[in-house]
Design brief:
This protein is an alpha+beta fold. It contains three helices and twelve strands, in the order ββαβαβββββββββα. The strands form two sheets. Strands 1, 2, 5, 6, 7, 8, 9, 10, 11 and 12 form a ten-stranded mixed sheet that branches. The protein has a two-stranded antiparallel ribbon with strand order 3-4. It starts with 9 loop residues before the first strand and ends with a helix.
Protein backbone atom coordinates (compact mmCIF):
# COMPACT_ATOMS: atom_id res chain seq x y z
CA UNK A 1 0.00 0.00 0.00
CA UNK A 2 0.98 3.60 -0.64
CA UNK A 3 3.45 5.00 1.88
CA UNK A 4 5.54 8.16 2.14
CA UNK A 5 8.78 8.73 4.06
CA UNK A 6 8.18 9.58 7.69
CA UNK A 7 9.19 12.76 9.43
CA UNK A 8 7.27 15.32 7.39
CA UNK A 9 6.02 18.18 9.54
CA UNK A 10 2.90 20.28 9.86
CA UNK A 11 2.78 23.82 8.54
CA UNK A 12 -0.17 26.05 9.26
CA UNK A 13 -1.76 27.90 6.36
CA UNK A 14 -4.74 29.93 7.58
CA UNK A 15 -7.41 27.50 8.69
CA UNK A 16 -5.76 24.67 6.74
CA UNK A 17 -2.58 22.77 7.46
CA UNK A 18 -0.43 21.22 4.77
CA UNK A 19 1.34 18.04 5.76
CA UNK A 20 3.46 15.33 4.31
CA UNK A 21 1.83 11.96 4.76
CA UNK A 22 2.29 10.32 8.14
CA UNK A 23 -0.58 8.27 9.57
CA UNK A 24 -1.40 8.61 13.22
CA UNK A 25 -2.63 5.39 14.72
CA UNK A 26 -6.35 5.22 15.39
CA UNK A 27 -7.14 3.69 18.75
CA UNK A 28 -9.69 0.96 19.16
CA UNK A 29 -11.68 3.24 21.48
CA UNK A 30 -12.71 5.37 18.50
CA UNK A 31 -14.32 2.43 16.73
CA UNK A 32 -15.85 1.34 20.00
CA UNK A 33 -17.36 4.81 20.39
CA UNK A 34 -18.79 4.58 16.89
CA UNK A 35 -20.42 1.27 17.71
CA UNK A 36 -21.93 2.74 20.89
CA UNK A 37 -23.32 5.71 18.97
CA UNK A 38 -24.92 3.39 16.45
CA UNK A 39 -26.43 1.26 19.20
CA UNK A 40 -27.91 4.37 20.80
CA UNK A 41 -29.58 5.45 17.61
CA UNK A 42 -27.00 8.13 16.77
CA UNK A 43 -26.82 7.13 13.09
CA UNK A 44 -29.33 6.55 10.32
CA UNK A 45 -28.34 3.41 8.39
CA UNK A 46 -27.96 3.98 4.68
CA UNK A 47 -28.39 7.77 4.86
CA UNK A 48 -25.33 9.62 3.57
CA UNK A 49 -23.73 12.38 5.60
CA UNK A 50 -23.90 15.86 4.04
CA UNK A 51 -21.07 17.28 1.93
CA UNK A 52 -19.59 20.77 2.15
CA UNK A 53 -17.37 22.66 -0.31
CA UNK A 54 -13.76 21.48 -0.36
CA UNK A 55 -11.50 24.17 1.18
CA UNK A 56 -10.04 26.24 -1.65
CA UNK A 57 -6.37 25.68 -0.85
CA UNK A 58 -6.91 21.96 -0.35
CA UNK A 59 -8.57 21.70 -3.76
CA UNK A 60 -5.76 23.71 -5.35
CA UNK A 61 -3.25 21.26 -3.87
CA UNK A 62 -5.13 18.30 -5.37
CA UNK A 63 -5.27 19.97 -8.78
CA UNK A 64 -1.47 20.25 -8.88
CA UNK A 65 -1.25 16.47 -9.41
CA UNK A 66 -1.85 16.06 -13.14
CA UNK A 67 -3.32 12.54 -13.15
CA UNK A 68 -5.47 13.24 -10.09
CA UNK A 69 -7.16 16.40 -11.41
CA UNK A 70 -10.07 14.48 -12.91
CA UNK A 71 -11.08 13.08 -9.49
CA UNK A 72 -10.44 16.03 -7.16
CA UNK A 73 -13.73 16.36 -5.24
CA UNK A 74 -15.42 19.75 -5.08
CA UNK A 75 -17.42 18.70 -2.01
CA UNK A 76 -16.38 16.52 0.93
CA UNK A 77 -18.03 15.06 4.09
CA UNK A 78 -16.42 17.57 6.48
CA UNK A 79 -17.92 20.53 8.33
CA UNK A 80 -17.40 23.95 6.74
CA UNK A 81 -15.41 26.61 8.57
CA UNK A 82 -13.38 24.16 10.66
CA UNK A 83 -9.59 23.69 10.45
CA UNK A 84 -8.55 20.98 8.01
CA UNK A 85 -5.27 19.15 7.53
CA UNK A 86 -4.17 18.42 3.97
CA UNK A 87 -2.06 15.34 3.27
CA UNK A 88 -0.24 15.20 -0.04
CA UNK A 89 2.66 13.56 -1.77
CA UNK A 90 4.03 12.16 -5.02
CA UNK A 91 6.46 9.32 -5.63
CA UNK A 92 8.48 8.61 -8.75
CA UNK A 93 8.90 5.15 -10.26
CA UNK A 94 11.74 4.44 -7.83
CA UNK A 95 9.73 5.38 -4.75
CA UNK A 96 11.43 8.74 -4.13
CA UNK A 97 9.44 11.78 -3.09
CA UNK A 98 9.02 14.37 -5.86
CA UNK A 99 7.13 17.63 -6.27
CA UNK A 100 3.37 17.38 -6.79
CA UNK A 101 3.59 18.95 -10.24
CA UNK A 102 6.61 16.90 -11.33
CA UNK A 103 6.34 14.93 -14.55
CA UNK A 104 8.24 12.16 -12.72
CA UNK A 105 5.33 11.64 -10.32
CA UNK A 106 3.90 8.14 -10.85
CA UNK A 107 1.93 7.56 -7.63
CA UNK A 108 0.17 10.20 -5.59
CA UNK A 109 -1.81 10.68 -2.40
CA UNK A 110 -4.08 13.55 -1.42
CA UNK A 111 -6.20 13.59 1.71
CA UNK A 112 -8.15 15.76 4.10
CA UNK A 113 -8.69 15.44 7.83
CA UNK A 114 -11.11 17.63 9.74
CA UNK A 115 -14.32 17.77 11.73
CA UNK A 116 -16.94 15.35 10.36
CA UNK A 117 -20.71 15.61 10.52
CA UNK A 118 -22.21 13.48 13.28
CA UNK A 119 -22.20 10.57 13.93
CA UNK A 120 -18.83 9.95 12.22
CA UNK A 121 -16.12 10.03 14.95
CA UNK A 122 -13.29 10.75 12.48
CA UNK A 123 -13.31 12.94 9.40
CA UNK A 124 -10.58 11.56 7.15
CA UNK A 125 -10.71 10.97 3.41
CA UNK A 126 -7.91 10.01 1.04
CA UNK A 127 -7.54 9.70 -2.72
CA UNK A 128 -4.79 7.48 -4.10
CA UNK A 129 -3.76 7.49 -7.75
CA UNK A 130 -1.09 5.55 -9.61
CA UNK A 131 0.04 5.17 -13.20
CA UNK A 132 1.72 1.89 -12.25
CA UNK A 133 -0.19 -0.23 -9.76
CA UNK A 134 -3.66 -1.17 -8.54
CA UNK A 135 -4.41 0.81 -5.38
CA UNK A 136 -6.19 -1.82 -3.28
CA UNK A 137 -3.52 -4.50 -3.16
CA UNK A 138 -4.05 -5.92 0.33
CA UNK A 139 -4.75 -9.65 0.54
CA UNK A 140 -8.49 -10.06 1.01
CA UNK A 141 -11.23 -12.58 0.51
CA UNK A 142 -12.30 -13.14 -3.08
CA UNK A 143 -15.85 -13.81 -1.89
CA UNK A 144 -17.67 -10.56 -1.27
CA UNK A 145 -19.09 -10.02 2.22
CA UNK A 146 -22.39 -8.35 2.97
CA UNK A 147 -22.03 -5.01 4.81
CA UNK A 148 -22.04 -5.71 8.53
CA UNK A 149 -20.87 -3.62 11.48
CA UNK A 150 -19.03 -6.65 12.86
CA UNK A 151 -16.50 -6.10 10.08
CA UNK A 152 -15.19 -3.18 12.15
CA UNK A 153 -13.98 -5.53 14.88
CA UNK A 154 -10.68 -4.36 16.37
CA UNK A 155 -9.11 -7.80 15.91
CA UNK A 156 -9.58 -7.75 12.14
CA UNK A 157 -6.24 -8.33 10.40
CA UNK A 158 -7.17 -8.40 6.71
CA UNK A 159 -8.98 -6.36 4.11
CA UNK A 160 -12.55 -7.37 3.30
CA UNK A 161 -14.18 -7.14 -0.12
CA UNK A 162 -17.73 -5.80 -0.19
CA UNK A 163 -18.05 -6.66 -3.87
CA UNK A 164 -18.29 -4.88 -7.19
CA UNK A 165 -20.45 -1.78 -7.59
CA UNK A 166 -21.20 0.66 -10.39
CA UNK A 167 -21.47 4.25 -9.24
CA UNK A 168 -22.19 7.13 -11.60
CA UNK A 169 -21.27 4.99 -14.58
CA UNK A 170 -17.93 3.87 -13.11
CA UNK A 171 -17.39 0.23 -12.10
CA UNK A 172 -15.21 -0.46 -9.10
CA UNK A 173 -14.63 -2.64 -6.07
CA UNK A 174 -15.53 -1.78 -2.48
CA UNK A 175 -12.82 -2.83 -0.05
CA UNK A 176 -12.63 -2.30 3.71
CA UNK A 177 -8.92 -1.73 4.32
CA UNK A 178 -7.19 -3.45 7.23
CA UNK A 179 -6.37 -1.39 10.34
CA UNK A 180 -3.24 0.76 10.30
CA UNK A 181 -1.25 -1.70 12.41
CA UNK A 182 -2.18 -4.59 10.09
CA UNK A 183 -0.95 -2.98 6.88
CA UNK A 184 -3.66 -0.44 6.12
CA UNK A 185 -1.13 2.37 6.26
CA UNK A 186 -2.41 5.84 5.44
CA UNK A 187 -5.89 4.44 4.78
CA UNK A 188 -6.16 2.03 7.71
CA UNK A 189 -9.82 1.22 8.55
CA UNK A 190 -10.99 3.14 5.47
CA UNK A 191 -13.67 1.99 3.07
CA UNK A 192 -12.23 2.29 -0.45
CA UNK A 193 -13.82 2.52 -3.89
CA UNK A 194 -11.11 1.11 -6.15
CA UNK A 195 -11.23 1.53 -9.92
CA UNK A 196 -9.22 2.10 -13.08
CA UNK A 197 -10.00 4.58 -15.82
CA UNK A 198 -8.04 6.33 -18.58
CA UNK A 199 -4.93 4.35 -17.69
CA UNK A 200 -4.87 5.44 -14.03
CA UNK A 201 -5.57 3.31 -10.93
CA UNK A 202 -7.56 5.10 -8.24
CA UNK A 203 -8.85 4.54 -4.72
CA UNK A 204 -11.25 7.02 -3.13
CA UNK A 205 -11.43 6.26 0.58
CA UNK A 206 -13.24 7.33 3.72
CA UNK A 207 -12.54 6.37 7.33
CA UNK A 208 -15.20 3.93 8.46
CA UNK A 209 -17.65 4.00 11.36
CA UNK A 210 -20.83 2.20 12.34
CA UNK A 211 -23.21 1.72 10.67
CA UNK A 212 -21.18 0.58 7.66
CA UNK A 213 -24.21 1.14 5.42
CA UNK A 214 -23.98 4.86 6.17
CA UNK A 215 -20.27 4.86 5.30
CA UNK A 216 -21.10 3.23 1.95
CA UNK A 217 -23.76 5.84 1.22
CA UNK A 218 -21.42 8.70 2.20
CA UNK A 219 -18.53 7.28 0.18
CA UNK A 220 -20.83 6.98 -2.83
CA UNK A 221 -21.74 10.64 -2.46
CA UNK A 222 -18.02 11.54 -2.21
CA UNK A 223 -17.29 9.51 -5.36
CA UNK A 224 -20.08 11.41 -7.10
CA UNK A 225 -18.39 14.66 -6.14
CA UNK A 226 -15.04 13.38 -7.42
CA UNK A 227 -16.56 12.23 -10.72
CA UNK A 228 -18.48 15.54 -11.09
CA UNK A 229 -21.99 14.17 -10.48
Amino acid sequence: MWQLPRGRGWSSVGDEMLVGVTKRGVTGSVLALALVLAACGGASPGVALPLAPTPAQALATCLKIRFMRSVCPRRVPLLSGRPTAVEKGCLDSGGSLVALASKRCRSALWGLEGAPPKPAPIGHLVILASLNTWQCTWPHEHRARAPNDRLLAQKRRHAVSLGQVRWYGQSGQLVLAPPYFAGGGAVGDHLAFCFRTAGVNYAITLHSWAPVTQVIATLKRLVGSALRH
